[in-house]
Amino acid sequence: MRVRGGMEYCDVMNQHKRRFIQRCAAILGASAAARLFPVGALAAGQDEVLTNWAGNYRYSTARLTKARTLEEIQAFARQQPSFKVLGTRHCFNGIADSKTQLLSMRDMNQVAALDPAGRTVTVEAGMSYGQLCPLLDSKGFALHNLASLPHISIAGACATGTHGSGVKNGNLSTAVSRLEIVTAAGEVVTLSRVKDRQFAGAVVNLGALGVVTKVTLDIQPTYKMRQQVYLDLPMRQVRDHFDDIASSGYSVSLFTDWQKERVNEVWIKQRLDSGEPLRDAAEFFGAARATRNVHPIVDLSPENCTEQMGVQGPWYERLPHFKMGFTPSSGKELQSEYFVPRGHAVEAILAIERLRDQVGPHLLISELRTIEADELWMSPCYERASLAIHFTWKPEWDAVSQLLPVIERELTPFQVRPHWGKLFTIPSSQLRGRYERWDEFKQLVSNLDPKGTFRNEYLSRNLYS
Predict the structure, then answer these.
(1) If one looks up domain 224-426 in CATH, what number appears?
(2) Which residues, including other chains, have CB under 8 Å from residue 285's CB and lie 6 or more apart?
(3) For residue 339, what are the contacts with CB-CB under 8 A and spacing of at least 6?
(4) Is residue 283 scored above 70 in pLDDT?
(5) pLDDT-based confidence at residue 48 (cuts at 50, 70, 90)
(6) Is 325 helix (H, G, I), strand (E, B) or coil?
(7) With respect to CATH, is domain 111-221 assigned 3.30.465.10?
(8) Domain ranges in the chain?
């Protein structure tokens, strides 16, 4: 098999198989590396297996306990020397994995309190955005931002710094104003934005502090949105007019396969209450307005995508790319994502474009989005407005695992930070220098989890190695 640029992956793999396995073991830990290979490679007889949503990661145990009350969580925590909380399983790595015991709160998915005067809503940790948003809208309220998928749990998304898009929009975690956490000792701890200095370290918590049982979010009056899609944006326009393109709507996404010196699709989502002129022109920086709904991956049906073509609708049916109730994205895939300072956005984009011959054969699609800076210690956007460069890969772990270090090396000059819930190989020695509050976060972990009940291979590798 030959890919563009003359790189022969089959030959490389055959010649360097042993080196590849050793590197995976060194970067990921031997057992973690094994679990990132396709689930189809499982030995016969292993029929009881928990996997993540995309099927690329299998968890180390099938022992899963479901909790339905705070008291059940407290009792469970006191009994377990080690466990992890498993949410909607949308992470592509072992951040939520445990060798001993998993806890699910998917049945705890109710609105605990709605405060119209204070403009907050408190939800149980098992609730997803897809469950909350229609209820919130029916009461006349909305969230400031949403990720591309509404299927993900609120607590899990905030714990990993998951985001939507918008030059003035912080990630999903920035809406959190209060957390309720059950510690390993079974004690209930509450941290709030206005009262607790350590709150900023607890929101993007990587699952390291305890069991988040309730999350309070800032809300605002409901609003309507619409989205237009433009096709084949020349990459030279991105180079020359990136800021204008990225700020052309409330939320903007650029989808590219890095081929043909162009961005395949530009999705512009606009609020109808913004007072800004609506995007209806036939052309946008040289890109042509789409004449039908499209999927980010052009060969796939747009049936599971949110409505386009300028059709007005509620915020929660336009901010995500995909509808609740449908299989999100492509299904069988791998994902990685990297954050660089927005001031270096064009340089970083051009750096990845130079890798197009290596990246292209294994890529489904990339997405470029902007996110505002925040003050959350372990957020990839801590104290810097960011560009997120997202990769949706074909389920080809052997090839992708070799490409990730190449991409990370190209982005190193920009102090790149990874998405905590996706695939990356940046060592903790480098990550520590890119998070100013790294040591304070570790101290917070030590305070709330002194015995390491919530530490797993992922945390040992990425936070402590």
Answers:
(1) 3.30.70.2520
(2) 233, 234, 237, 241, 244, 245
(3) 371, 380, 381, 386, 387, 388, 389, 416, 417, 418, 419
(4) yes
(5) confident
(6) coil
(7) yes
(8) 111-221, 224-426
| Residue of 326, 308, 306 whose CA lies nearest to 316 | 306
**SS3 helix, strand, coil % of the chain, rounded to 5?**
30, 25, 45
Share of the chain above pLDDT 70, in %: 89
Q: How is residue 429 written in tokens?
A: 């020695």
Q: What is the CA radius of gyration of the chain?
A: 22
User: What is the phi-psi region of residue 185: left when phi exceeds 0, alpha when psi lies from -120 to 50, beta otherwise?
Assistant: alpha
Residues 391/332, Cβ–Cβ less than 8 Å: no
DSSP 294: -
Which residue is listed with tokens 């949110």? Answer: 306
Burial of 434 (0-12, 13-18, 19+ CB in 10 A): middle
Q: In this structure, what token pair is assigned to residue 196?
A: 């607790």
Q: Please give the Cα distance from 258 to 241 (Å, whole number).
A: 18
For residue 297, give the DSSP letter: S
Element containing residue 139 per DSSP (H, E): none
Residue type, 424: F
Parallel/antiparallel/unpaired status of strands 224-234 and 334-341: unpaired
SS3 annotation, 383-401: CCCEEEEEEEECCCHHHHH
Which one is predicted more confidently, 36 or 240? 240
Q: How far, in Å, CA of 421 to CA of 429, rounded? A: 19
Helix 345-353 and helix 397-411, axial crossing angle in degrees, nearest 10: 140
Q: Using CB atoms within 10 Å of the CB of residue 442, give its burial: 0 to 12 exposed, 13 to 18 middle, 19+ buried.
A: middle
pLDDT value at residue 383: 98
User: Which residue type, as a one-letter code, is found at position 13?
Assistant: M
